[in-house]
Amino acid sequence: MRFRIFHRTQYLYWTPVRDSYNEVRLRPATDDKSRLEFFLLKVNPPVRLQHFRDNWFNYVHHFELPEPHSQLTIEAQSTINTTNPYLGGMPVGVPFASLKADPHEMDQSFLGDSRYVAISPEVWRLGIDIRDGGDDVFETARGVMHHIYRNWTYAPNTTHAATHMNEVLALKSGVCQDFTHLMIGICRSLGIPARYVSGYLYNGPEAHLRGAQASHAWCEVRVPGRGWFGLDPTNDTLADERHIKIATGRDYHDAAPVSGYFDAPPGATSGLKVDLEVSRIGR
């Protein structure tokens, strides 16, 4: 599928702020399943943009804005062509013993606790119950996805960007970011490497997918000998060609589309407005 993406994030400050530093992860990822054809990032007030690759190989733009300003607009435009990672079928048939027999240098980062994910006895017990004696790595991860979809309520505005997985576990509700953190925690408790993916989700004219109105999130698990495969617990679906990957990491903290800080007077407040449009073009 070929998509055109428009993403604008606008911050409004009721009192001027200064010394703003921002990191932006909005450039779609390119791999053997997605080809980036065009990308343009614009910032207002105008700044000098620089970029680097972070620890997870995400493409990160960063900039500083030392002068006082009352608004900040970050606008990204992309054109990308995606292919379904599951065209060759699902990576089934890999037993749990393979997780120990196939060590990978990155796996340890995606097996333990992180800022928004914690592996507690409660989470481990839940994982054991979902696995129910099964020995297929990918099928078990799919079972975790199904369980979250069936037992947690999709409820916008009940959580926020800094909501920890433990809160989601107790609330039994949340949004895509929360369900992704929960799935990551359960998979890691079972020894399955799992990572957070931020990106976009195309919701076609006949689809009814949740989380497509803003930046989306889903989980990827690493199947030994097969690679990383995406699962979307918010919609109980495989992450296919409709899922447009931007960044990956241990959790939201590593893959946030926009993050940063600024210097503001005590008591200063701000507003946030996000506009997103994902349009299918051609075939």
Structural descriptors:
single chain; 283 residues; alpha+beta; Immunoglobulin-like; C8orf32 fold; 2 domains; 7-stranded antiparallel sheet; 5-stranded antiparallel sheet; 6 helices; globular
Account of the protein in words:
α3 packs across α5 and α4 (165-171) crosses α5 (176-189). β10 and β11 form a beta hairpin. By secondary structure, this protein is of the alpha+beta class. It has helices spanning 97-101, 121-131, 137-151, 165-171, 176-189, 252-255; strands spanning 2-24, 34-44, 50-53, 59-65, 69-82, 153-154, 173-174, 194-201, 216-223, 227-232, 237-238, 243-249, 258-263, 270-280. The longest helix has 15 residues, at 137-151. The protein is built from 6 helices and 14 strands. The mean pLDDT is 93. The protein folds into 2 domains: 2-83 and 256-280, Immunoglobulin-like (Sandwich); 97-255, C8orf32 fold (Roll). The strands form 3 sheets. Strands 1, 2, 3, 4, 5, 13 and 14 form a 7-stranded antiparallel beta sheet that branches. The protein has a 5-stranded antiparallel beta sheet with strand order 11-10-9-8-12.
Kindly summarize this structure in a few lines.
The protein has 283 residues and is of the alpha+beta class. The chain has helices at 97-101, 121-131, 137-151, 165-171, 176-189, 252-255; strands at residues 2-24, 34-44, 50-53, 59-65, 69-82, 153-154, 173-174, 194-201, 216-223, 227-232, 237-238, 243-249, 258-263, 270-280. The strands form three sheets. Strands 1, 2, 3, 4, 5, 13 and 14 form a seven-stranded antiparallel beta sheet that branches. A five-stranded antiparallel beta sheet has the order 11-10-9-8-12.
